[in-house]
Specification:
about 180 residues, about 25% strand
Amino acid sequence: MPDDNPHGALLAIHRIEADLEVVTGLHIGAGDLEMRIGGIDRPVIKDPVTELPYVPGSSLKGRMRALLEWTTGALPGDRPLGLNEADKPGVRPILLLFGLGGGDSSTDFGPSRLSVADAFLLDAFRPDRGRNAPLTEAKFENQINRISGTATNPRQTERIVPGVRFRFDARLRRFANDPELL
């Protein structure tokens, strides 16, 4: 049966793995589930089963896309790159990797080529594997009124401490008619 995929046959699925290390503290918010007097106002996202912090794959993928879009200089403002920018230098590979935005559709690009999994703690950092140092800390923040010099809106933000490491895992699909994306 002939392959009618305009992108050609699927040639390979490349696995990309890395260890990610928190260098300056990391906050990826979990939302405000509940407020407690004296408690953390802005907690980090945690696995609902283990209650250990993790980095959502969607956050990693979104950050990678934003950085790549920024390097092209073709940013259209407050939305991701789309079909209107497809002919600008460096944009087509980004659209192939990450797909088109919600308002765009085109068979020229097909499915996104990159999928990114959630990044979970490396075993060495899991408390159930012997780690006894804290994984998160509370960081106090507030706003300073520049006229009166007083602090307003104090709050506690939870963040993952520097040195904690996560396992990054992504898959890149390569089709016969694609340019080199790896």
